[in-house]
Design a protein that fits this description.
Number of domains of chain A: 1
Shape of chain B: globular
Strand content of chain A: 15-25%
Helix content of chain A: 10-25%
CATH class of chain A: Alpha Beta
Shape of chain A: globular
Strand order of the largest sheet of chain B: 3-2-1-30
Strand content of chain B: 35-45%
Distance between the termini of chain A: 37 Å
Number of domains of chain B: 1
CATH topology of chain B: Methylamine Dehydrogenase, Chain H
CATH architecture of chain A: Roll
Order of helices and strands of chain A: EHEHEEHE
Structural class of chain B: mainly beta
Number of strands of chain A: 5
Oligomer: heterodimer
Largest interface: A-B, 18 and 13 residues
Strand order of the largest sheet of chain A: 2-1-5-3-4
Chain lengths: 98, 371
């Protein structure tokens, strides 16, 4: 079970107030986690990554195990602790805009 | 007694203001979508409880929201706006080719006949349509693929398609306007489009009489007389009596003819309203005095309307989609400011008062007249 923490605006959009637990079959990567997240919460499609290119939106970052995974490949596997659900994947809105 | 519902999009959320027909006491609901930019909200003319909203954010992108209960509750709809066919390029600010990129939805125009059909004006400029209540969107790509497309260039606010006007007497005719490409019209339901910019003169572009390239800020039409259009251009207030085929200047005695909004009285098609703004480098009223100007003769002769409006120290702007009129008698006129005030005149512009003073900066104002 993968744990995912969303920024507040996306929790509001998905109408949840807590961390999300997802079943992710196979490799646990940015692509597979977001596929599972968007399947569970379709209203999040397009808000974290582009519909077509699947590229991360510029002002969102991915953190796992205190490391920035934002620039890793879509198919890079997250750390084992994330895959086992011991650590959450944090999706964070950048502090930007002044 | 009938009433009104005013839909206010702001930089930090949506607000719904309601009143009875006197338009004196107001209820203010919101913010909906707190923290998000709401570029525009508009209700269906055939089902007033059906309202569409464009919700956007630099962090999370574009959402389309729909309400089926007059703005009390909302459901997110499809937010996938993908250009059709070959994307191509337009001009960037420096004149180099730049690929079309979707940024946001500026304007939502529900069909006059079907609550599930809505047109969306987007940045980078294109027009999309849904026929299933917002569950999917498809581009009317004939506009973007018009032969002049590669020459279009963004205005200071981006290359936005901000105005969509549906002709009530001819379902195949739609008018749109783009900053800074100009105005266009289709007469075949959106398959093909032609520029309608003859008579516009923009001295700050290489060819002041160019077919495209004019910074049109807003266009308005009285639904009972769809061949007559009024335009607030970057500079110049203009009028066309032949559906945009030719424009003439009607700035007349305005103290400045720079501005963003323009609208038409609900019952007097020759009565029009503008809010003069000092200049394109100083986006606020002249001398700090907020004024609406009204012409009862279709332009050229303008009267200053100031009763109830700030007499000094007012340095707000009124953005292009932030003025609207209701259908009551007397016609109500509404506008919102970048300072967060929403003003109403329940008597056709003679007197004004603030419905609310301290909202986030107002991006758009629409009004629904309720039975």
């Amino acid at each position: 079970m993968i744990r995912v923490v969303l920024p507040a605006h996306l929790r509001n959009l998905a109408r949840i107030d807590h961390e999300i637990e997802l079943d992710v079959p196979g490799k646990v990567t940015q692509r597979t986690v977001l596929d599972a997240l968007e399947a569970r919460y379709p209203m999040l499609q397009g808000t974290i990554r582009d519909h077509v290119t699947l590229q991360r939106r510029p002002f969102l970052r991915f953190f796992a195990c205190e490391e920035d995974w934002s620039h890793e490949s879509l198919d890079a596997e997250f750390p084992e602790k994330v895959a086992r659900g011991e650590e959450p994947l944090l999706i964070v809105g950048a502090i930007a805009g002044g | 007694m009938s009433g009104v519902r005013v839909l206010v999009g702001t930089k930090k959320g949506a607000f719904v203001l309601t009143s009875d027909g006197t338009r004196k006491k107001w209820d203010i609901a919101g913010p909906h979508f707190a923290g998000w930019e709401i570029y525009h909200m508009k209700g269906s003319p055939v089902d007033p409880n059906r309202i569409y909203a464009s919700q956007t954010s630099g962090w999370f992108g574009q959402l389309i929201q729909r309400s089926d209960d007059g703005g009390k509750t909302w459901e997110p709809m499809d937010n996938k706006f993908v250009y059709g066919g070959k994307t191509g390029t337009h001009q960037w600010y420096d004149g180099t080719p730049h690929p079309w990129e979707f940024k946001r939805v500026w304007h939502l125009e529900p069909s006059l006949h079907d609550p599930n059909t809505v047109y969306a004006g987007i940045e980078d400029a294109a027009i999309f349509r849904t026929t299933d209540g917002g569950r999917s969107w498809a581009e009317l790509k004939g506009l973007r693929e018009h032969g002049t497309g590669p020459a279009w260039q963004p205005g200071a606010g981006g290359m936005c398609l901000h105005t969509i006007i549906l002709d009530p007497k001819n379902p195949d005719r739609i008018f749109i306007a783009i900053s800074a490409a100009g105005a266009f019209r289709t007469d075949d339901g959106g398959k093909s489009w032609k520029p309608i910019n003859k008579g516009l003169y923009s001295k700050y572009i290489p060819d002041p009489n160019a077919e495209v390239g004019h910074c049109v800020h807003h266009v308005a039409m009285h639904p009972g007389r769809p061949g007559v259009l009024f335009m607030q251009k970057h500079w110049d207030v203009m009028r066309s009596d032949n559906a945009g085929d030719q424009w003439t200047k009607i700035s007349g005695n305005l103290p400045t003819d720079f501005g963003f909004v323009i609208d038409v009285h609900a019952h007097q098609p020759e009565t029009i309203f503008v809010v003069p703004i000092k200049s394109d480098s100083e986006h606020f009223p002249i001398d700090g005095k907020l004024r609406v100007y009204r012409s009862k003769s279709g332009g050229n002769d303008w009267e200053e309307l100031k009763k109830g409006l700030p007499e000094k120290d007012c340095y707000v702007n009124v953005l292009r989609d932030a003025m609207a009129v209701d259908q009551l008698d007397d016609c109500g006129v509404y506008f919102g400011t970048t300072g967060g005030q929403v003003y109403v005149s329940p008597d056709g512009g003679d007197s004004w008062s603030a419905i609310v003073r301290d909202l986030p900066g107002v991006l758009s104002v629409e009004v629904q007249t309720l039975p």
